[in-house]
Amino acid sequence: MTTRIDRAQVEHIAQLASLILADDETERLTRELADMVRYVEELNELDTANVEPTAYVQLERSELRTDEVEPCLDPQETLAQAPRSAHGGFAVPTFVES
Amino acid sequence: MPSHDEVLAIAERVRAGETSALDATQAALTAIDARNGALNAFLTVSHENALDQARAVDAKRARGEKLGPLAGVPIGIKDALCTRGVVTTAASKILEGYVPPYDATVVARLRAADAIIIGKTNMDEFAMGSSNENSAYGPVKNPWDPERTPGGSSGGSAAAVAARMVSATLGSDTGGSIRQPAALTGTVGIKPTYGRVSRFGLIAFASSLDQVGPFATDVRGAARVLGVISGKDPKDATSLGAPVDDYEAACGKSVKGLRIGVPAEYFAKGLNPEVEASIRAAISELEAEGCIVRPVKLPHTRYALATYYIIADAEASSNLARFDGVRYGLRVEPSGPGKADLKAMYGATRDAGFGTEVKRRILLGTFVLSAGYYDAYYLKAQKVRTLIRRDFEEAFREVDVICSPTSPTPAFRLGEKVDDPLAMYLNDVYTLPASLAGIPGCSVPAKPTASGLPVGLQIVAPWLEEAKMFSVAAAFEARSPGLVPPLAT
Fold first, then answer.
1. Would you say residue A29 lies in a domain?
2. In the annotation, is B167 catalytic?
3. One Pfam match, by short name (chain A) (predicted)?
4. Which of A22, B191, B276, B322 is spaced 20 to 30 Å from B431 by Cα?
5. Residue B371 in contact with partner chain A when CB distance is under 8 A
6. CB B127 within 8 A of CB B80
């Protein structure tokens, strides 16, 4: 598979990733992303039809802990790091019409 | 008390009452104050907080209580690790001023071992980089030559140890971010087996690759720190329950008869001749120590870089989605009519908060995970990762450890590779395969170049066989001169 990366595609990917790029940044990143994609396509040289993907890094799955209620962070302390908070929660701009 | 004492020396003297934790901490603070201006290795120095911790350790001793294995040892922490009450930014503007309400498990374990958390070290933003030039707070300078990089992304942690501001630090290694800067600064750097050390409280870059590990002035110091931070953590489901070996005891073990594999693929085009000569000489030293040297094959090495960038960036694009201006860090709310929507706030925040390298990687990661491309790129890379892991499995049937250069070149100049991302990425070519396989690796100082720049010997061991790696590292260290940059003397 050979994929051509163009400006429109980078703008679309940026939108998916919630990134707003300046014009010159879009241009530079289009060039660099095209280089990167061309480079990673060297993996196509390998036949991996019968190879299992590495879905799990460890040799064995580690044991899960029991599902028990434990103390958690103090909500006030956590909210203290929020750029804006209100009514005991994280405040965001209105996104549903009232 | 000199600031450049090794980890074990400080801990033993504090425990024996020959010196105090306060003296050890003050010595480190003095060294940091004197040298950090030139190097930018620390982003935050917790003067008062560190002195309070030291007083608490001294009080504990005065009460007759037994002190921990890192009693009074000042340790710097990579700014990717959360420290309760101390600013943690991952060297990004998007987390400027963020004060975590909790400690990373590794930090909590250091505190429990009576170490002194002295400050936060500089790094590439979100650990993305090989030169520490991507920090939003300026690059770190290499103590051997301030016009050169210390390597990345744990460049601050490496430089702080090299310059003897502290005798140990913590870093994180995703594709080589402990081993490569260790090599470029003449320090010891350890990446443990994936899952050996908890990642709870490590600001994630690529979760299937990230591992926390120590830098130290010497192998035994690194062994002690790794012993303290290793082991199962209920807060990290990927941390392993396997027993933690006595790494310090391993440092004294004979390596006679141990089989060392040398992969031809790591001595190919692109390797600096002086680095090659130094590493071949290092392998001869190990042979003289009684090791048996054998060639091994790692045929998929040349695909590691492409595989790594697909997997790491895919995971990064997902992990970094949490930085949206809602729960912590920076928020930019676009002004003007029609602009007060959530999506616009996410975009404006991420645009202002992320640097170019982070954006570049988020874009590649989003691309390889997007509809229509997932199988061709991400799934393909996961399959090649399996082939790379199998290479190591095969090799470790024949040998006990694998030795190679850590980095293809000595420290390069600041700015030399910033405009060519691919050239920069190639700097990690020898460290990436072990990261993809999840196996432990370390870098130990070898003979420097003629111009006096450090060179690192990489030793890679099978899964959970860190002890074997430490035995070889300590045996080599005993036959090679320690490296101390002029700045630290």
1. yes
2. no
3. GatC
4. B322
5. no
6. yes
Q: Is residue A24 part of a domain?
A: yes
More confident of the two residues B3 and B146: B146
Set B46, B78, B141, B154: catalytic member: B78
Query: How far does Cα B142 stand from its chain's mean position?
Result: 15
Query: Which amino acid is present at A55?
Result: A
How far is Cα B109 from Cα B111, in angstroms, rounded to an integer? 5
The whole-chain average pLDDT of chain B stands at 95
Interchain contact B57–A (C-beta under 8 A): no
Assess whether pLDDT exceeds 50 at residue B439: yes
Q: Coil, strand, or helix at residue B204?
A: coil
pLDDT given for residue B489 in this prediction: 59
Give B 298-357 residues with CB within 8 A of chain A.
300, 303, 305-307, 309-310, 317, 321, 324-331, 333, 340-343, 345-348, 350-351, 354, 356
Model ipTM value: 0.93
Query: Is the confidence at residue B479, as pLDDT, over 80?
Result: yes
Cβ neighbours of residue B217 closer than 8 Å, sequence gap 6 or more:
B4, B6, B7, B161, B164, B167, B168, B187, B188, B482
Cis peptide preceding B167, ω within 30 of 0: no
The SS3 of residue B348 is helix
Question: Which whole-number Å values give the CA distances from B138 to B4, B77, B197, B292, B342, in the listed order?
Answer: 25, 18, 29, 45, 31
> In this model, does residue A30 exceed pLDDT 90?
yes
Q: Do B76 and B165 form a contact (C-beta atoms < 8 A)?
A: yes
**Domain assignment of residue A30, given as a range:** 7-44
Asked whether residue A19 is domain-assigned, the answer is yes
CB pairs < 8 Å spanning A and B: 164
Q: In the Cβ-directed half-sphere of B343, how many Cα atoms lie within 13 Å? A: 7
On whether the CB atoms of residues B119 and B45 are closer than 8 A, the answer is: yes
Give the C-alpha separation, B324 to B316, whole Å. 14
For residues B123 and B380, give the distance between their C-alpha atoms in angstroms, rounded to a whole number: 31
pLDDT at B371: 87
Task: Report how many domains make up chain A.
Answer: 1
Rounded to two decimals, the pTM is: 0.96
B238/A54 touch (CB, cutoff 8 Å), yes or no: no
Domain membership of residue A97 (yes or no) is: no
Scanning every residue of chain A, which has its alpha carbon at the shortest distance from the alpha carbon of B350? A19
Chain B contact probe: residue of A36, A38, A78, A97 with most B CBs at under 10 A: A36
Active site residue: B3, B20, B131, B177, which one?
Answer: B177
What CATH number has the domain bearing residue A23? 1.10.20
Q: Is B451 a catalytic residue?
A: no
Would you call B427 helix, strand, or coil by DSSP?
helix
Per-residue confidence band for B5, with pLDDT thresholds at 50, 70 and 90: low
Q: Which of residues 14-53 of A touch B (CB under 8 A)?
A: 14, 16-21, 25, 29, 32-33, 35-37, 39-44, 46, 48, 51-53
